[in-house]
Amino acid sequence: MKTSFFIHLKKKFVRINLDDINYILSVAHHVKIHTSQGVYIPHLSLRQLEEILPSTDFVRANRGTLIPIKKVTAFTNDEVFLGTERFGITDHFREELKRLLLIMIHRETDNSDREDEITI
Q: Would you say the pTM of this structure is higher than 0.70?
């Protein structure tokens, strides 16, 4: 399983650990990768990053925002929350988020002895 990838920044390549990514925003013609170490602006599009990142771990909240599933703390019909950060969510991407959250929950419950009822 992929745990990191490299991005090109000016004259060097920097390793980004997937667990360190808080969210990714597309702003004008740039992508900003917000991590626990800082913000990186690589020469990549959001679509290119979406192809690099594992589709089971990252999902779009809207046209310009890519978020890690395991950092989602809550969502409504209009917004998704990652701790104190919140982003608008569209109908199409909300359904994909629900689907991926169910997969993640099943993975977690398969690895535990809990029999909690889960509703999404």
A: yes
